[in-house]
């Protein structure tokens, strides 16, 4: 796309609580929507903008618009979307707009006049084009009148001249970049990765929580013997941006992100329950991949709280932690969880609550609660859950 260089007066129309996920040509902190629109008009490759709704007003200059990339246009309570309207249209509000057919767009016909931008002085040197700017290699260079400014690229923080990679959602939270849950870009394994950072206390305490794994207990993807627990392979990275749904996912944060806390969540019949493990680690991979048992002293009742009132475990063994279970393959075990037994030993367990599980009584249950009829404290159970793991 190439905008007419002679068109310097434009009108902007707004889609409230929407976001266009296309490549950015610039990013700024602004005071209001008019300044954001002005930035777009100054940039020859800008066709629309995303403007943050809360906290710091981040203005993202976009290389396309919602009509050119309709599949990337979505609802997002953290952003408003502004796009340039064809000024030759006599009455824009009466023209059919495919994005104004629902109640979220009732006010979107208001046109926002953007500032007039004069033709650029031919003697004004574009440092961004010539490479004479002082921006970090990890920053956008944005041309201004007779000068330029720098803004760190997604996944980095700083003043634009110096930009440091952001590697976790808690770092995003602590640096004031975002204080509400939103999709952000982290620098993971030296690569930009988009994830949904969960901000605030949704059940595990305050701060920013980085997603690591999502496990569907009905599927074999992350059963105890799966190689995903020991390798460095991603699985469905898109699932890291979709929150508490049923998309399974394994992100590179599994082997890259250090932490002092782990948040464990299970969803059963749309009911979410959480618990927190206070544990320091270089990564979750470092605590699981070698198969060695590492104890987590949470106690039976804490594990059962993930399931709710229906939870059931046999009374003996109570081995809890990472890689919990005995040496016999066909009995219960879990990558993170607790196992119980009727006998007073841990090699033939027939009950468990955990993530990444397998074995008796139901080998197909990879996340949730299993308990056979022999001596459980709340009856026989076969409860499959959707599991969520975050770190901070």
Automatic annotation (TrEMBL):
Keywords carried by this UniProt record: Disulfide bond, EGF-like domain, Glycoprotein, Repeat, Signal
GO MF term set: calcium ion binding; heparin binding
The name this protein goes by in its record: EGF-like domain-containing protein
Gene Ontology CC entries for this record: extracellular space
Organism the protein comes from: Pocillopora damicornis
Region of interest: Disordered: 357-380
One Pfam family of this chain: EGF_3
InterPro entries, sorted: EGF, EGF-like_Ca-bd_dom, NELL2-like_EGF, PKC-binding_NELL
Domain EGF-like stretches: 124-164
The keyword Glycoprotein belongs to this UniProt entry's keyword annotation: yes
